[in-house]
Protein backbone atom coordinates (compact mmCIF):
# COMPACT_ATOMS: atom_id res chain seq x y z
CA UNK A 1 0.00 0.00 0.00
CA UNK A 2 1.19 3.52 -0.74
CA UNK A 3 1.93 5.57 2.33
CA UNK A 4 0.27 8.85 3.14
CA UNK A 5 1.61 11.73 5.18
CA UNK A 6 0.53 14.57 7.38
CA UNK A 7 0.92 17.97 5.82
CA UNK A 8 0.81 20.81 8.30
CA UNK A 9 0.01 24.16 6.72
CA UNK A 10 0.78 27.50 8.30
CA UNK A 11 0.52 31.05 7.14
CA UNK A 12 -1.55 33.04 4.71
CA UNK A 13 -4.74 31.43 3.44
CA UNK A 14 -3.96 28.12 5.15
CA UNK A 15 -7.60 27.00 5.16
CA UNK A 16 -8.07 27.78 1.48
CA UNK A 17 -4.78 26.09 0.58
CA UNK A 18 -5.77 23.02 2.64
CA UNK A 19 -9.04 22.78 0.75
CA UNK A 20 -7.26 23.12 -2.60
CA UNK A 21 -4.64 20.54 -1.60
CA UNK A 22 -7.19 17.99 -0.41
CA UNK A 23 -9.13 18.46 -3.64
CA UNK A 24 -5.99 18.05 -5.76
CA UNK A 25 -4.92 14.90 -3.89
CA UNK A 26 -8.34 13.32 -4.39
CA UNK A 27 -8.15 14.35 -8.07
CA UNK A 28 -4.86 12.45 -8.24
CA UNK A 29 -6.59 9.34 -6.91
CA UNK A 30 -5.52 9.55 -3.26
CA UNK A 31 -7.51 9.88 -0.06
CA UNK A 32 -7.21 13.06 1.96
CA UNK A 33 -8.69 14.33 5.21
CA UNK A 34 -8.68 17.91 6.35
CA UNK A 35 -7.77 18.36 10.00
CA UNK A 36 -8.95 21.71 11.34
CA UNK A 37 -9.69 23.06 14.83
CA UNK A 38 -13.14 21.50 14.91
CA UNK A 39 -11.72 18.07 14.06
CA UNK A 40 -9.06 18.41 16.75
CA UNK A 41 -11.73 19.22 19.33
CA UNK A 42 -13.77 16.19 18.27
CA UNK A 43 -10.76 13.92 18.48
CA UNK A 44 -9.93 15.10 21.97
CA UNK A 45 -6.91 17.34 21.49
CA UNK A 46 -3.78 17.81 19.43
CA UNK A 47 -1.88 14.81 20.80
CA UNK A 48 -4.63 12.33 19.97
CA UNK A 49 -5.17 13.99 16.61
CA UNK A 50 -1.49 13.57 15.79
CA UNK A 51 -1.81 9.86 16.56
CA UNK A 52 -4.87 9.60 14.29
CA UNK A 53 -2.92 11.39 11.55
CA UNK A 54 -0.14 8.84 11.88
CA UNK A 55 -2.63 6.00 11.55
CA UNK A 56 -4.14 7.67 8.49
CA UNK A 57 -0.70 8.05 6.95
CA UNK A 58 0.17 4.42 7.52
CA UNK A 59 -3.01 3.53 5.68
CA UNK A 60 -2.30 5.68 2.66
CA UNK A 61 -4.29 8.76 3.61
CA UNK A 62 -2.97 12.31 3.51
CA UNK A 63 -3.98 14.38 6.52
CA UNK A 64 -3.99 18.06 5.65
CA UNK A 65 -3.79 19.91 8.94
CA UNK A 66 -4.31 23.59 9.59
CA UNK A 67 -4.88 23.24 13.33
CA UNK A 68 -1.88 24.28 15.44
CA UNK A 69 0.07 21.78 17.49
CA UNK A 70 -0.30 18.77 15.19
CA UNK A 71 3.12 17.15 15.05
CA UNK A 72 2.98 13.48 14.17
CA UNK A 73 6.24 11.67 14.82
CA UNK A 74 6.91 10.44 11.30
CA UNK A 75 5.94 11.20 7.73
CA UNK A 76 4.95 14.78 8.22
CA UNK A 77 5.65 17.80 6.13
CA UNK A 78 5.48 21.30 7.59
CA UNK A 79 4.76 23.99 5.03
CA UNK A 80 4.98 27.70 5.60
CA UNK A 81 2.78 29.18 2.90
CA UNK A 82 4.06 32.07 0.85
CA UNK A 83 1.72 35.00 1.10
CA UNK A 84 1.95 35.76 -2.63
CA UNK A 85 0.80 32.26 -3.66
CA UNK A 86 -2.77 31.56 -4.59
CA UNK A 87 -4.26 28.58 -2.70
CA UNK A 88 -4.23 26.45 -5.86
CA UNK A 89 -0.64 27.28 -6.64
CA UNK A 90 0.42 26.64 -3.03
CA UNK A 91 -1.29 23.24 -3.31
CA UNK A 92 0.53 22.51 -6.57
CA UNK A 93 3.89 23.22 -4.93
CA UNK A 94 3.07 20.79 -2.14
CA UNK A 95 1.96 18.15 -4.64
CA UNK A 96 5.33 18.51 -6.37
CA UNK A 97 7.13 18.20 -3.04
CA UNK A 98 5.20 15.03 -2.19
CA UNK A 99 6.06 13.60 -5.60
CA UNK A 100 9.74 14.42 -5.09
CA UNK A 101 9.64 12.62 -1.73
CA UNK A 102 8.15 9.58 -3.43
CA UNK A 103 4.89 9.86 -1.54
CA UNK A 104 2.78 10.58 -4.59
CA UNK A 105 2.82 9.50 -8.17
CA UNK A 106 1.72 12.15 -10.64
CA UNK A 107 -0.26 9.97 -12.98
CA UNK A 108 -0.57 11.28 -16.48
CA UNK A 109 -3.97 12.85 -16.93
CA UNK A 110 -5.24 10.93 -19.92
CA UNK A 111 -7.81 12.01 -22.42
CA UNK A 112 -10.97 9.98 -22.49
CA UNK A 113 -10.97 7.55 -25.45
CA UNK A 114 -13.31 9.90 -27.32
CA UNK A 115 -11.07 12.89 -26.65
CA UNK A 116 -7.97 10.92 -27.68
CA UNK A 117 -9.58 10.05 -31.00
CA UNK A 118 -10.76 13.63 -31.50
CA UNK A 119 -7.24 14.96 -30.90
CA UNK A 120 -5.69 12.28 -33.11
CA UNK A 121 -7.99 13.28 -35.96
CA UNK A 122 -7.22 16.95 -35.39
CA UNK A 123 -3.49 16.25 -35.52
CA UNK A 124 -3.93 14.15 -38.66
CA UNK A 125 -5.98 16.93 -40.23
CA UNK A 126 -3.17 19.34 -39.45
CA UNK A 127 -0.59 16.97 -40.98
CA UNK A 128 1.29 16.22 -37.79
CA UNK A 129 0.38 12.54 -37.70
CA UNK A 130 -1.49 10.12 -39.93
CA UNK B 1 24.11 39.33 -14.37
CA UNK B 2 24.46 42.72 -12.75
CA UNK B 3 23.06 45.45 -14.94
CA UNK B 4 21.10 43.06 -17.05
CA UNK B 5 18.26 42.02 -14.81
CA UNK B 6 14.97 42.67 -16.49
CA UNK B 7 11.95 44.01 -14.68
CA UNK B 8 9.66 42.13 -16.99
CA UNK B 9 10.03 39.68 -19.86
CA UNK B 10 7.77 39.23 -22.87
CA UNK B 11 8.18 36.20 -25.14
CA UNK B 12 6.19 36.11 -28.38
CA UNK B 13 6.26 32.70 -30.01
CA UNK B 14 5.39 32.32 -33.67
CA UNK B 15 5.05 28.64 -34.45
CA UNK B 16 6.94 27.79 -37.67
CA UNK B 17 8.04 31.36 -38.46
CA UNK B 18 10.82 31.02 -41.03
CA UNK B 19 14.10 32.99 -40.96
CA UNK B 20 13.95 33.79 -44.68
CA UNK B 21 10.85 35.96 -44.21
CA UNK B 22 12.36 38.01 -41.40
CA UNK B 23 16.10 38.03 -42.05
CA UNK B 24 16.75 36.94 -45.61
CA UNK B 25 17.09 38.97 -48.80
CA UNK B 26 13.39 38.37 -49.51
CA UNK B 27 12.35 39.50 -46.02
CA UNK B 28 9.03 41.19 -45.59
CA UNK B 29 8.63 44.72 -44.38
CA UNK B 30 8.03 44.11 -40.67
CA UNK B 31 9.06 47.33 -38.93
CA UNK B 32 8.33 46.24 -35.37
CA UNK B 33 10.20 42.95 -35.52
CA UNK B 34 13.02 44.54 -37.45
CA UNK B 35 13.32 47.45 -35.02
CA UNK B 36 13.52 44.96 -32.20
CA UNK B 37 16.28 43.09 -34.02
CA UNK B 38 18.13 46.30 -34.83
CA UNK B 39 18.04 47.42 -31.19
CA UNK B 40 19.02 44.00 -29.93
CA UNK B 41 20.20 40.87 -31.68
CA UNK B 42 18.85 38.17 -33.90
CA UNK B 43 19.67 34.88 -35.53
CA UNK B 44 18.58 31.45 -36.58
CA UNK B 45 17.39 29.25 -33.74
CA UNK B 46 18.17 25.57 -34.24
CA UNK B 47 15.18 23.45 -33.33
CA UNK B 48 15.29 20.15 -31.49
CA UNK B 49 15.25 16.77 -33.19
CA UNK B 50 12.64 16.22 -34.45
CA UNK B 51 11.79 19.82 -35.40
CA UNK B 52 8.11 19.78 -34.61
CA UNK B 53 5.77 21.75 -32.35
CA UNK B 54 5.52 18.87 -29.88
CA UNK B 55 8.07 18.55 -28.32
CA UNK B 56 9.86 21.71 -29.53
CA UNK B 57 8.05 24.30 -27.37
CA UNK B 58 8.45 22.07 -24.33
CA UNK B 59 12.19 21.78 -25.06
CA UNK B 60 12.44 25.52 -25.43
CA UNK B 61 10.61 26.31 -22.20
CA UNK B 62 12.25 23.60 -20.10
CA UNK B 63 15.76 23.79 -21.53
CA UNK B 64 15.74 20.00 -21.91
CA UNK B 65 15.95 17.76 -24.98
CA UNK B 66 13.15 15.42 -26.12
CA UNK B 67 14.95 12.39 -24.71
CA UNK B 68 15.10 13.90 -21.24
CA UNK B 69 11.45 14.91 -21.58
CA UNK B 70 10.59 11.43 -22.89
CA UNK B 71 8.52 13.04 -25.61
CA UNK B 72 9.42 12.38 -29.25
CA UNK B 73 6.48 13.82 -31.13
CA UNK B 74 2.77 14.44 -30.83
CA UNK B 75 2.00 10.76 -30.42
CA UNK B 76 4.29 8.42 -28.55
CA UNK B 77 4.30 4.76 -27.75
CA UNK B 78 2.93 4.16 -24.27
CA UNK B 79 4.84 0.90 -24.05
CA UNK B 80 6.37 -1.71 -26.35
CA UNK B 81 3.06 -3.15 -27.45
CA UNK B 82 2.05 -2.64 -31.08
CA UNK B 83 -1.07 -0.63 -30.35
CA UNK B 84 -0.46 1.72 -27.49
CA UNK B 85 0.03 5.25 -28.77
CA UNK B 86 -0.88 8.30 -26.73
CA UNK B 87 -0.97 12.01 -27.44
CA UNK B 88 1.65 13.91 -25.50
CA UNK B 89 -0.15 16.75 -23.80
CA UNK B 90 1.02 18.74 -20.76
CA UNK B 91 0.82 15.65 -18.58
CA UNK B 92 3.68 14.15 -20.57
CA UNK B 93 6.03 16.93 -19.45
CA UNK B 94 7.35 16.32 -15.96
CA UNK B 95 10.26 18.73 -16.12
CA UNK B 96 9.75 22.26 -14.80
CA UNK B 97 9.09 24.83 -17.46
CA UNK B 98 10.34 28.37 -17.19
CA UNK B 99 7.03 29.68 -15.84
CA UNK B 100 6.97 26.95 -13.17
CA UNK B 101 10.38 28.06 -11.95
CA UNK B 102 9.46 31.74 -12.07
CA UNK B 103 6.16 31.01 -10.30
CA UNK B 104 8.10 29.40 -7.47
CA UNK B 105 10.30 32.47 -7.32
CA UNK B 106 7.18 34.53 -6.69
CA UNK B 107 7.03 36.10 -10.16
CA UNK B 108 3.65 36.66 -11.70
CA UNK B 109 3.31 34.84 -14.99
CA UNK B 110 0.92 34.85 -17.92
CA UNK B 111 1.07 31.90 -20.34
CA UNK B 112 -1.10 31.95 -23.43
CA UNK B 113 -1.48 29.22 -26.04
CA UNK B 114 1.91 27.58 -25.51
CA UNK B 115 1.81 24.01 -26.83
CA UNK B 116 1.58 21.24 -24.25
CA UNK B 117 -0.11 23.31 -21.56
CA UNK B 118 -3.35 21.31 -21.54
CA UNK B 119 -4.45 19.96 -19.06
CA UNK B 120 -3.63 23.15 -17.21
CA UNK B 121 -1.51 23.18 -14.06
CA UNK B 122 -1.69 25.98 -11.53
CA UNK B 123 0.84 28.77 -11.94
CA UNK B 124 1.48 31.93 -10.00
CA UNK B 125 -0.68 33.89 -12.38
CA UNK B 126 -2.79 33.00 -15.39
CA UNK B 127 -2.60 30.31 -18.03
CA UNK B 128 -4.63 29.71 -21.19
CA UNK B 129 -3.99 26.32 -22.78
CA UNK B 130 -3.16 25.30 -26.32
CA UNK B 131 -4.79 23.47 -29.19
CA UNK B 132 -4.37 20.13 -27.42
CA UNK B 133 -7.42 21.02 -25.34
CA UNK B 134 -10.26 18.90 -26.75
CA UNK B 135 -12.55 21.92 -27.14
CA UNK B 136 -13.56 25.08 -25.31
CA UNK B 137 -16.01 23.17 -23.11
CA UNK B 138 -12.95 21.80 -21.34
CA UNK B 139 -11.23 23.64 -18.49
CA UNK B 140 -8.60 25.27 -20.64
CA UNK B 141 -7.62 28.09 -18.30
CA UNK B 142 -6.02 28.54 -14.93
CA UNK B 143 -7.77 29.69 -12.87
CA UNK B 144 -11.01 28.25 -14.15
CA UNK B 145 -12.72 31.61 -13.78
CA UNK B 146 -10.38 33.08 -16.38
CA UNK B 147 -12.23 31.16 -19.09
CA UNK B 148 -15.47 33.13 -18.72
CA UNK B 149 -13.57 36.36 -18.26
CA UNK B 150 -11.55 35.79 -21.41
CA UNK B 151 -14.52 34.76 -23.51
CA UNK B 152 -16.36 37.88 -22.38
CA UNK B 153 -13.41 39.97 -23.50
CA UNK B 154 -12.53 38.35 -26.85
CA UNK B 155 -15.53 36.19 -27.74
CA UNK B 156 -14.98 32.53 -28.42
CA UNK B 157 -11.38 31.57 -27.73
CA UNK B 158 -10.13 29.85 -30.89
CA UNK B 159 -8.00 26.85 -30.06
CA UNK B 160 -7.02 26.33 -33.69
CA UNK B 161 -8.12 26.66 -37.30
CA UNK B 162 -11.17 24.52 -37.98
CA UNK B 163 -11.60 22.52 -41.19
CA UNK B 164 -7.96 22.90 -42.12
CA UNK B 165 -8.02 20.38 -44.98
CA UNK B 166 -10.20 22.18 -47.44
CA UNK B 167 -9.91 23.43 -50.99
CA UNK B 168 -11.90 26.54 -50.07
CA UNK B 169 -8.79 28.59 -49.65
CA UNK B 170 -10.43 32.01 -49.24
CA UNK B 171 -12.42 30.83 -46.24
CA UNK B 172 -9.41 29.02 -44.82
CA UNK B 173 -7.26 32.11 -45.11
CA UNK B 174 -9.92 34.11 -43.26
CA UNK B 175 -9.90 31.54 -40.47
CA UNK B 176 -6.10 31.63 -40.19
CA UNK B 177 -6.16 35.43 -39.90
CA UNK B 178 -9.01 35.13 -37.37
CA UNK B 179 -6.93 32.75 -35.26
CA UNK B 180 -4.06 35.22 -35.18
CA UNK B 181 -6.27 38.18 -34.25
CA UNK B 182 -8.07 36.13 -31.61
CA UNK B 183 -4.75 35.15 -30.00
CA UNK B 184 -3.45 38.73 -30.02
CA UNK B 185 -6.78 40.03 -28.69
CA UNK B 186 -6.44 37.58 -25.81
CA UNK B 187 -2.85 38.71 -25.29
CA UNK B 188 -3.94 42.34 -25.27
CA UNK B 189 -6.61 41.59 -22.68
CA UNK B 190 -4.26 39.67 -20.40
CA UNK B 191 -1.39 42.08 -20.80
CA UNK B 192 -3.50 45.06 -19.79
CA UNK B 193 -5.74 43.33 -17.26
CA UNK B 194 -3.29 41.25 -15.23
CA UNK B 195 -0.15 42.14 -13.33
CA UNK B 196 2.74 40.16 -14.78
CA UNK B 197 6.49 39.80 -14.65
CA UNK B 198 6.71 37.10 -17.32
CA UNK B 199 4.38 36.94 -20.30
CA UNK B 200 4.61 34.27 -22.98
CA UNK B 201 2.27 33.63 -25.87
CA UNK B 202 2.39 31.38 -28.94
CA UNK B 203 0.58 32.14 -32.17
CA UNK B 204 -0.11 29.04 -34.28
CA UNK B 205 -1.42 30.75 -37.39
CA UNK B 206 1.97 31.04 -39.08
CA UNK B 207 2.30 27.27 -39.13
CA UNK B 208 -1.20 26.81 -40.51
CA UNK B 209 -0.53 29.45 -43.16
CA UNK B 210 2.69 27.81 -44.31
CA UNK B 211 1.19 24.36 -44.64
CA UNK B 212 -1.89 25.57 -46.47
CA UNK B 213 -0.37 28.16 -48.81
CA UNK B 214 3.32 27.39 -49.39
CA UNK B 215 3.05 26.39 -53.03
CA UNK B 216 1.24 29.64 -53.82
CA UNK B 217 3.92 31.84 -52.33
CA UNK B 218 7.30 30.17 -52.84
CA UNK B 219 8.71 30.43 -56.36
CA UNK B 220 10.99 27.55 -55.37
CA UNK B 221 8.09 25.15 -55.00
CA UNK B 222 7.52 22.89 -58.04
CA UNK B 223 3.79 23.64 -58.01
CA UNK B 224 4.18 27.42 -57.78
CA UNK B 225 2.31 29.38 -60.43
CA UNK B 226 3.21 33.04 -60.87
CA UNK B 227 0.28 35.41 -60.64
CA UNK B 228 -1.90 33.05 -58.59
CA UNK B 229 -4.45 34.78 -56.33
CA UNK B 230 -2.63 33.81 -53.11
CA UNK B 231 0.84 34.79 -54.21
CA UNK B 232 1.19 37.52 -51.58
CA UNK B 233 -0.66 36.03 -48.62
CA UNK B 234 2.56 35.26 -46.72
CA UNK B 235 3.62 38.89 -46.93
CA UNK B 236 0.16 40.10 -45.96
CA UNK B 237 0.00 37.74 -43.02
CA UNK B 238 3.48 38.45 -41.68
CA UNK B 239 2.83 42.18 -41.95
CA UNK B 240 -0.51 41.91 -40.12
CA UNK B 241 1.28 39.87 -37.50
CA UNK B 242 3.94 42.53 -37.18
CA UNK B 243 1.31 45.19 -36.59
CA UNK B 244 -0.17 43.13 -33.75
CA UNK B 245 3.33 42.56 -32.38
CA UNK B 246 3.84 46.32 -32.40
CA UNK B 247 0.74 46.77 -30.22
CA UNK B 248 2.09 44.33 -27.66
CA UNK B 249 5.51 45.95 -27.64
CA UNK B 250 3.91 49.31 -26.97
CA UNK B 251 1.89 47.85 -24.10
CA UNK B 252 4.92 46.06 -22.67
CA UNK B 253 6.85 49.31 -22.39
CA UNK B 254 10.48 50.26 -22.72
CA UNK B 255 11.76 48.39 -19.71
CA UNK B 256 10.51 44.98 -20.74
CA UNK B 257 13.01 42.57 -22.23
CA UNK B 258 11.55 40.95 -25.33
CA UNK B 259 12.11 37.76 -27.31
CA UNK B 260 10.39 36.78 -30.53
CA UNK B 261 11.01 33.14 -31.31
CA UNK B 262 9.83 30.22 -33.37
CA UNK B 263 10.07 26.53 -32.63
CA UNK B 264 11.15 25.50 -36.14
CA UNK B 265 11.18 26.91 -39.62
CA UNK B 266 9.49 25.87 -42.84
CA UNK B 267 10.45 24.87 -46.35
CA UNK B 268 8.87 23.60 -49.54
CA UNK B 269 7.66 20.02 -49.41
CA UNK B 270 8.38 18.20 -52.64
CA UNK B 271 6.49 15.00 -51.94
CA UNK B 272 6.20 12.05 -49.63
CA UNK B 273 8.16 8.85 -49.11
CA UNK B 274 5.94 5.87 -48.40
CA UNK B 275 8.19 4.47 -45.72
CA UNK B 276 6.17 1.36 -44.90
CA UNK B 277 5.82 0.60 -48.60
CA UNK B 278 9.60 0.84 -48.83
CA UNK B 279 10.04 -1.42 -45.78
CA UNK B 280 7.73 -3.99 -47.43
CA UNK B 281 9.60 -3.83 -50.74
CA UNK B 282 12.93 -4.25 -48.96
CA UNK B 283 11.92 -7.21 -46.81
CA UNK B 284 11.63 -5.50 -43.44
CA UNK B 285 7.84 -5.50 -43.12
CA UNK B 286 5.29 -8.15 -44.06
CA UNK B 287 1.55 -7.67 -44.11
CA UNK B 288 -0.72 -10.63 -43.40
CA UNK B 289 -3.15 -9.38 -46.02
CA UNK B 290 -2.58 -7.12 -48.99
CA UNK B 291 -4.15 -3.70 -48.36
CA UNK B 292 -7.37 -2.88 -50.11
CA UNK B 293 -6.34 0.48 -51.51
CA UNK B 294 -4.52 3.08 -49.49
CA UNK B 295 -4.63 2.09 -45.85
CA UNK B 296 -3.17 3.49 -42.65
CA UNK B 297 -0.55 1.12 -41.28
CA UNK B 298 -2.50 1.06 -38.00
CA UNK B 299 -5.43 -0.44 -39.91
CA UNK B 300 -3.35 -3.19 -41.58
CA UNK B 301 -2.82 -6.68 -40.22
CA UNK B 302 0.91 -7.04 -39.85
CA UNK B 303 2.54 -10.47 -39.94
CA UNK B 304 4.69 -9.76 -36.90
CA UNK B 305 6.76 -12.96 -36.91
CA UNK B 306 7.93 -11.98 -40.40
CA UNK B 307 8.42 -8.28 -39.66
CA UNK B 308 11.64 -6.66 -38.52
CA UNK B 309 10.58 -3.01 -38.72
CA UNK B 310 7.63 -0.73 -39.23
CA UNK B 311 7.24 3.05 -39.31
CA UNK B 312 4.91 5.94 -38.76
CA UNK B 313 4.32 8.97 -40.93
CA UNK B 314 4.29 12.72 -40.43
CA UNK B 315 6.68 15.54 -41.25
CA UNK B 316 9.51 13.20 -40.29
CA UNK B 317 9.69 9.41 -40.14
CA UNK B 318 9.86 7.22 -37.09
CA UNK B 319 10.98 3.63 -37.45
CA UNK B 320 10.47 0.91 -34.86
CA UNK B 321 12.30 -2.39 -34.76
CA UNK B 322 10.53 -5.58 -33.76
CA UNK B 323 12.91 -6.81 -31.07
CA UNK B 324 12.76 -10.19 -29.35
CA UNK B 325 11.90 -9.85 -25.68
CA UNK B 326 10.84 -6.23 -26.12
CA UNK B 327 7.93 -6.28 -28.58
CA UNK B 328 5.26 -8.95 -28.03
CA UNK B 329 6.22 -10.88 -31.15
CA UNK B 330 9.73 -9.55 -31.60
CA UNK B 331 12.01 -11.30 -34.04
CA UNK B 332 15.32 -9.43 -33.90
CA UNK B 333 17.53 -10.99 -31.21
CA UNK B 334 18.67 -8.32 -28.77
CA UNK B 335 22.30 -9.21 -29.55
CA UNK B 336 21.73 -8.37 -33.21
CA UNK B 337 19.95 -5.08 -32.55
CA UNK B 338 22.86 -2.80 -33.48
CA UNK B 339 23.80 -4.77 -36.58
CA UNK B 340 20.21 -4.70 -37.74
CA UNK B 341 19.80 -1.00 -36.99
CA UNK B 342 23.00 -0.14 -38.85
CA UNK B 343 21.86 -2.16 -41.85
CA UNK B 344 18.57 -0.25 -41.89
CA UNK B 345 20.27 3.13 -41.47
CA UNK B 346 22.57 2.40 -44.40
CA UNK B 347 19.65 1.34 -46.59
CA UNK B 348 17.51 4.36 -45.72
CA UNK B 349 20.39 6.77 -46.27
CA UNK B 350 21.17 5.17 -49.64
CA UNK B 351 17.56 5.53 -50.86
CA UNK B 352 17.48 7.29 -54.21
CA UNK B 353 14.97 9.93 -55.27
CA UNK B 354 12.45 9.45 -58.07
CA UNK B 355 15.03 10.45 -60.68
CA UNK B 356 17.63 8.05 -59.30
CA UNK B 357 19.63 10.79 -57.62
CA UNK B 358 20.51 10.44 -53.90
CA UNK B 359 17.77 11.89 -51.71
CA UNK B 360 20.15 12.77 -48.89
CA UNK B 361 18.14 11.04 -46.17
CA UNK B 362 19.33 11.00 -42.58
CA UNK B 363 18.42 8.21 -40.17
CA UNK B 364 19.29 9.06 -36.57
CA UNK B 365 19.39 7.03 -33.38
CA UNK B 366 17.76 8.74 -30.38
CA UNK B 367 20.64 7.64 -28.16
CA UNK B 368 23.02 9.66 -30.35
CA UNK B 369 20.84 12.76 -30.13
CA UNK B 370 19.88 13.04 -26.49
CA UNK B 371 21.37 13.07 -23.02
CA UNK B 372 18.84 10.43 -21.93
CA UNK B 373 16.12 8.48 -23.69
CA UNK B 374 13.18 8.33 -21.31
CA UNK B 375 9.83 6.84 -22.18
CA UNK B 376 9.61 4.77 -25.36
CA UNK B 377 11.64 6.39 -28.14
CA UNK B 378 11.49 5.21 -31.74
CA UNK B 379 14.54 3.26 -32.86
CA UNK B 380 15.19 5.77 -35.62
CA UNK B 381 14.16 9.23 -36.68
CA UNK B 382 14.28 9.72 -40.45
CA UNK B 383 14.54 13.02 -42.31
CA UNK B 384 13.83 12.44 -45.97
CA UNK B 385 15.74 14.68 -48.35
CA UNK B 386 16.63 17.23 -45.70
CA UNK B 387 12.94 17.45 -44.78
CA UNK B 388 12.04 18.15 -48.41
CA UNK B 389 9.90 15.00 -48.28
CA UNK B 390 7.41 13.95 -45.66
CA UNK B 391 7.07 10.45 -44.27
CA UNK B 392 3.94 8.64 -45.42
CA UNK B 393 2.99 5.76 -43.17
CA UNK B 394 0.04 4.49 -45.19
CA UNK B 395 0.46 1.58 -47.62
CA UNK B 396 -1.23 0.62 -50.88
CA UNK B 397 0.61 3.12 -53.09
CA UNK B 398 2.01 2.22 -56.51
CA UNK B 399 5.55 3.04 -55.47
CA UNK B 400 7.47 4.64 -52.65
CA UNK B 401 7.17 8.23 -53.91
CA UNK B 402 3.95 10.18 -53.77
CA UNK B 403 3.14 13.71 -54.78
CA UNK B 404 -0.37 13.64 -53.37
CA UNK B 405 -1.62 13.98 -49.86
CA UNK B 406 -4.67 11.92 -49.01
CA UNK B 407 -5.65 14.28 -46.23
CA UNK B 408 -5.63 17.40 -48.40
CA UNK B 409 -3.10 19.79 -49.78
CA UNK B 410 0.00 20.49 -47.72
CA UNK B 411 2.98 21.91 -49.50
CA UNK B 412 5.30 22.83 -46.65
CA UNK B 413 7.44 20.80 -44.36
CA UNK B 414 9.23 21.92 -41.25
CA UNK B 415 12.82 23.10 -41.35
CA UNK B 416 15.53 22.86 -38.74
CA UNK B 417 16.00 26.56 -38.04
CA UNK B 418 13.45 28.91 -36.55
CA UNK B 419 13.81 32.58 -35.70
CA UNK B 420 15.28 34.37 -32.71
CA UNK B 421 15.04 38.09 -31.98
CA UNK B 422 15.98 39.48 -28.61
CA UNK B 423 16.13 42.93 -27.14
CA UNK B 424 17.09 42.84 -23.48
CA UNK B 425 17.06 46.67 -23.41
CA UNK B 426 20.63 46.86 -22.17
CA UNK B 427 22.06 47.75 -25.55
CA UNK B 428 24.91 45.34 -24.86
CA UNK B 429 24.22 42.92 -27.64
CA UNK B 430 23.74 43.66 -31.28
CA UNK B 431 23.72 42.09 -34.70
CA UNK B 432 23.46 38.53 -35.82
CA UNK B 433 24.17 35.71 -33.38
CA UNK B 434 25.26 32.27 -34.52
CA UNK B 435 24.95 28.85 -32.96
CA UNK B 436 21.70 29.46 -31.09
CA UNK B 437 19.62 26.51 -29.96
CA UNK B 438 16.05 26.56 -28.74
CA UNK B 439 17.13 25.06 -25.42
CA UNK B 440 19.02 28.34 -24.82
CA UNK B 441 15.78 30.27 -24.40
CA UNK B 442 14.76 29.12 -20.90
CA UNK B 443 18.17 29.69 -19.26
CA UNK B 444 18.38 33.11 -20.87
CA UNK B 445 14.98 34.10 -19.45
CA UNK B 446 15.92 32.89 -15.97
CA UNK B 447 19.18 34.79 -16.20
CA UNK B 448 17.30 37.97 -17.11
CA UNK B 449 15.36 37.62 -13.88
CA UNK B 450 18.49 36.90 -11.88
CA UNK B 451 17.16 33.42 -11.11
CA UNK B 452 19.75 30.65 -10.90
CA UNK B 453 19.71 28.42 -13.95
CA UNK B 454 19.18 24.80 -12.84
CA UNK B 455 22.34 22.79 -13.48
CA UNK B 456 20.47 20.19 -15.50
CA UNK B 457 19.18 22.67 -18.06
CA UNK B 458 20.97 21.82 -21.30
CA UNK B 459 20.89 25.21 -22.99
CA UNK B 460 23.23 28.13 -22.43
CA UNK B 461 22.55 31.72 -21.44
CA UNK B 462 22.61 33.91 -24.54
CA UNK B 463 24.68 37.01 -24.09
Detailed description of the structure:
The complex is a heterodimer of chains A (130) and B (463). Chain A has one domain (5-125): Rossmann fold (3-Layer(aba) Sandwich), CATH 3.40.50.300. Chain A is elongated, with a radius of gyration of 18 Å. Chain A has helices spanning 14-27, 37-43, 46-58, 87-100, 113-125; strands spanning 5-11, 31-35, 61-65, 76-81. In chain A, strands 2-3-1-4 form a four-stranded parallel β-sheet. By secondary structure, chain A is of the alpha/beta class. The relative contact order of chain B is 0.21. In chain B, the strands form five sheets. Chain B has a nine-stranded mixed β-sheet, with helices on both faces. Chain B has a four-stranded antiparallel β-sheet with strand order 12-13-15-14. In chain B, strands 16-11-17 form a three-stranded mixed β-sheet. In chain B, a hairpin with a 4-residue loop joins β12 and β13 (317-321). The longest helix of chain B is centred in the middle third of the chain and has 25 residues, at 169-193. Chain B is an alpha/beta fold and 463 residues long. Chain B folds into two domains: 8-268 and 414-448, 3-Layer(aba) Sandwich (Alkaline Phosphatase, subunit A); 271-409, no CATH class. Chain B is built from 13 helices and 20 strands. In chain B, α7 packs antiparallel against α8 (205-217), α7 runs parallel beside α9 (233-252) and α8 (205-217) runs antiparallel to α9. The A-B interface holds A 82, 84-86, 88-89, 91-93, 106, 108-111, 115-116, 118-120, 122-130 and B 52-54, 73-75, 86-87, 89, 91-92, 94, 103-104, 106, 119, 121-124, 131-132, 134-135, 142-143, 160, 164-165, 208, 211, 296-297, 312-315, 390, 392-394, 405, 407-408, 410.
Amino acid sequence: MEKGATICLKGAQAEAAAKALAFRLIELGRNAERIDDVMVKRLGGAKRTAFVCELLGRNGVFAVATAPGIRPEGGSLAVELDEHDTPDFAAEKIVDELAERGLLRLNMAQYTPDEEELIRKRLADLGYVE
Amino acid sequence: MAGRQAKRVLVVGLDCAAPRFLFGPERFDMPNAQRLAANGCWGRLRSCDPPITVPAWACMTSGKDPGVLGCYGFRNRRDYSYEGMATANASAIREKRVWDILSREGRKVVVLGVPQTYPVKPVNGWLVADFLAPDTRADYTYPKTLKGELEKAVGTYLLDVKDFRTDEKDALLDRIFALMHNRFDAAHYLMTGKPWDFFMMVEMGVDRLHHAFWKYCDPGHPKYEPGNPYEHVFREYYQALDARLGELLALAGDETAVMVVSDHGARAMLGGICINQWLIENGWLTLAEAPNGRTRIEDCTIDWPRTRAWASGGYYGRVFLNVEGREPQGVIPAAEYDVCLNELIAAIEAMPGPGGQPLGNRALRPRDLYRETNGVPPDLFVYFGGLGWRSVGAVGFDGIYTFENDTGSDDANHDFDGIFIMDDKTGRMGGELKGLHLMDVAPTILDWFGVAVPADMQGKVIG
